[in-house]
From TrEMBL:
Organism: Hyphomonas jannaschiana VP2
Record bears the keyword Transit peptide: no
Subcellular location: Cell inner membrane; Cell membrane
Parts of the chain that traverse the membrane: 6-24, 74-92, 124-147, 159-180, 187-208, 228-249, 270-296, 308-334, 367-387, 393-418, 425-443, 455-477
Protein name per Swiss-Prot or TrEMBL: Sodium/proline symporter
CDD domains: SLC5sbd_PutP
Keywords carried by this UniProt record: Amino-acid transport, Cell inner membrane, Cell membrane, Ion transport, Membrane, Sodium, Sodium transport, Symport, Transmembrane, Transmembrane helix, Transport
Length: 498
């Protein structure tokens, strides 16, 4: 067992727990602070927090693994994500920050939907909360799987033990420190990921060049490996990879960061910081996969699981203490996303179920306690789902990403830009989007031996049909309520004033 690397990880764990303790003392007095940090998030913290919680274990394991197997063609995912993230900052972030505060300080996405449409039936709140809890539990399990694989591949520990170690630390600082702890740890984790994804590919290519192996490794791979459009890639395949960018508009754990940034003016600053961080890290992840293929081929290094290529390079090329830091980068990516998803799920269970239907007069202290219990419950379910060692990280993330993107993405955009969207239109869009994704994933339909999801990524039909359903139902339904139109006008005035 690599004890020096374990020391680095132990230091990282202590730092995360210390941040959690600081946040516990600083901002957990009421549910608004616990769930949204009192809307006082610094733009740099907000940007890196959004980025780190977005990228998760797939950035250092899933994406390099996909590139390792498929070559540069897998980078189309990264291209789509960069475009989607930029458009999310540009079109969603400013309006969502203003509108959620105008809408009686809405602190969750379901809360925003209910207040945006003045939905007294609470059907929007309930439906969106159910979607959040189901898909985030699946999403969280993907992060826990990555943690289990990390400890198994790096230290030879039991996979199940790795699950509990990963989840245990995350649950501790999230449960006690709430949103501020999650955001501050995300900031630190984002910095670690940034350094690691520059260091690993650069050192790998330097070693290859010095050993004269790079040219032979490049010449030995199958034709098209280093092309953006390799043999066998179809137009539908490229569209599917680029379509990952559509998911950004409907990811609660990302857009909630926009709601928490301290002012509208800070959104632009957050956009510059966030996009710079993202472009560098996704390029680093792609190059890690390419360097990993070249190095392992040249040296005959066995790779049983392509998603562990970052771990393999870290252990081979670096001193154990540095390797421990690089392994901490993987944990940082994993934990930042898990913590964000746990908090959003907890927020939904607390605000959208417990307070709304069980204890309307619950005190702030009681709601914070319920939020902490919810964090624990969701994490335990996610660990149970992650016990299957064969789970593929990118596949799990892809399914959950598509579910949120299709169910929430069109509704978020229409809610912020079209005052004509009605409650029934939002309900129809949400249902159609989620059902389409599930149908595309699980329907026993094949075309030329391929399932629907193998032909076209399920977010594409889900997003399109969700938007069509929302618009059609809104147009044929009742007129917009006067108070909805008034608040929409207030938002547009605030945007122009800024």
């Amino acid at each position: 067992m690599n004890y020096e690397a374990l020391i680095s990880l132990a230091i990282y764990f202590v730092l995360m727990l210390a941040i959690g303790l600081y946040a516990y003392r600083k901002s957990t007095s009421d549910v608004s602070e616990y769930m949204l940090g009192g809307r006082q998030l610094h733009p740099a913290v907000g940007a890196l927090s959004a980025g780190a919680s977005d990228m998760s274990g797939w950035m250092l394991m899933g994406l390099p693994g996909a590139v390792f197997v498929s070559g540069y063609s897998a980078a189309w995912i990264a291209v789509g994500l960069v475009i989607g993230a930029y458009l999310n900052y540009l079109f969603v972030a400013p309006r969502l920050r203003v509108y959620t505060e105008l809408a009686d300080d809405a602190i969750t996405i379901p809360d925003f939907f209910e207040k945006r449409f003045h939905d007294k039936s609470r059907m929007l709140r309930v439906l969106s909360s159910v979607v959040i809890v189901i898909f985030f539990t699946l999403y969280t399990s993907a992060g826990v799987v990555a943690g289990g694989k990390l400890f198994e591949a790096s230290f030879g520990l039991d996979y199940q033990l790795g699950l509990f170690l990963t989840a245990g630390v995350v649950v501790a600082y999230t449960l006690f420190g709430g949103f501020l702890a999650v955001s501050l740890t995300d900031f630190v984790q984002g910095c670690i990921m940034f350094v690691a994804l520059i260091l690993v590919p650069i050192v790998s290519f330097i070693v290859l060049k010095n050993e004269g192996d790079w040219a032979s490794a490049a010449a030995s791979v199958e034709p098209g490996y280093f092309g953006m459009w390799p043999k066998g890639m179809t137009i539908m395949g490229v569209i599917s990879l680029l379509a990952w960018g559509l998911g950004y508009f409907g990811q609660p754990h990302i857009i909630v960061r926009f709601m928490a940034i301290r002012s509208l003016k800070d959104i632009a600053t957050a956009r510059y910081i966030g996009m710079s961080w993202m472009i560098v890290t996704v390029i680093g992840a792609v190059l890690t996969g390419i360097a990993g293929y070249a190095y392992t081929y040249a040296h005959g290094t066995p790779v049983e699981d392509p998603e562990t290529i970052f771990i393999i390079l870290s252990q081979i090329l670096f001193h154990p203490l540095v390797a421990g830091f690089l392994l901490a980068a993987i944990l940082a990516a994993i934990m930042s996303t898990i913590s964000s998803q746990l908090l959003v799920s907890s927020s939904s269970l607390t605000e959208d179920f417990y307070k709304t239907f069980l204890r309307k007069e619950a005190s702030q202290t009681e709601l914070v306690a319920v939020g902490r219990i919810s964090v624990l419950v969701v994490s335990l379910v996610a660990i149970g789902l992650a016990f299957d060692r064969s789970s593929n990280i990118l596949s799990l993330v892809g399914n959950a990403w598509a579910g949120f993107g299709a169910a929430f993405g069109p509704i978020i955009l229409l809610s912020l830009y079209w005052r004509g969207l009605t409650r029934n239109g939002a309900l129809a869009g949400m249902i159609v989007g989620a059902v389409t994704v599930l149908f595309w994933l699980y329907a026993p339909i094949e075309i030329n031996g391929k399932s629907l999801s193998d032909i076209l990524y399920e977010i594409v039909p889900g997003f399109v049909f969700s938007g069509i359903a929302a618009i059609v139902v809104s147009v044929v339904g009742r007129d917009v309520l006067p108070h909805v139109a008034h608040r929409f006008g207030e938002m547009e005035k605030a945007m122009k004033a800024d």
